[in-house]
Design goal:
Strand content: 15-25%
Number of helices: 7
Oligomer: single chain
Radius of gyration: 19 Å
Largest sheet: 6 strands, parallel
Order of helices and strands: HEHEEHEHEEEHHEH
Strand order of the largest sheet: 3-2-1-4-5-8
Structural class: alpha/beta
Helix content: 40-55%
């Protein structure tokens, strides 16, 4: 009987602790929105601009998205439509330009169309965030060293506190001085650079860390 009472007491303490942790995390997410940048079909297998690790990054983004949906937090999908001459991907009215099914918007989730790497340029993103009282951005998407980076730096300049979910982003091999720089190295370098100087532009964490409240 004594052991039974002790077990019930321990269980109650555990439940109280979990409830407190969840409440604290939810409070810490106030004024926070999820920004999903360019998770579109052309970046996935069979697309016109396939990235290294797109599927894995898409699935990690999906996990973060599920958290935001479960907690009724704002979600914004950024969709790039190419309008520049000579563009080979994200072309208007093509399947490749559509948002991938892993993160397909639901209900009234906001979708913003952009034509430049910086998601704020010539869009209503800033106005929309300000209208919702958003001060903090959780950023996922593609490509790490182009649209994710340029959007994050712009967000910092506009006064937002940024968190990039590093394993929910992806890029591809690059070339410099006639040599190939592997996507993994590009990924590491750009995430390390943008989080330098004490996370000046953004902090970078993993999906697991985010879901565990770090």
């Amino acid at each position: 009987m004594k052991n039974l009472f002790k077990g019930i007491f321990t269980l109650c303490l555990t439940l109280i602790s979990l409830t407190t942790i969840n409440a604290q995390k939810k409070k810490s997410m106030e004024n926070t929105a999820l920004l999903i940048i360019d998770v579109q079909n052309d970046y996935f297998k069979g697309g016109n601009m396939t990235l290294v690790g797109a599927e894995e990054a898409g699935k990690k983004t999906q996990q973060v998205l599920e958290y935001f949906r479960k907690n009724n937090l704002p979600v914004i999908n950024i969709k790039h439509i190419a309008t520049n001459e000579g563009a080979t991907f994200f072309l208007p009215d093509t399947k490749g330009a559509e948002i991938n099914s892993l993160v397909e918007p639901k209900n009234d989730e906001k979708v913003i169309i952009k034509h430049y790497p910086n998601s704020f340029r010539d869009t209503d993103l800033l106005e929309y965030l300000q209208s919702k009282g958003i001060k903090n951005l959780v950023i996922t998407g593609m490509m790490t060293d182009v649209c994710v980076e340029s959007t994050t730096r712009a967000a910092f300049d506009f006064g937002f506190n940024n968190t990039i979910i590093g394993d929910a982003t992806a890029t591809r091999d690059r070339e410099l001085y006639g040599k190939v720089v592997k996507a993994e190295e590009v990924q590491k370098s750009f995430l390390a650079g943008i989080s330098a100087l004490g996370n000046l532009y953004t902090r970078v964490i993993t999906t697991a860390d985010f879901l565990n409240g770090k």
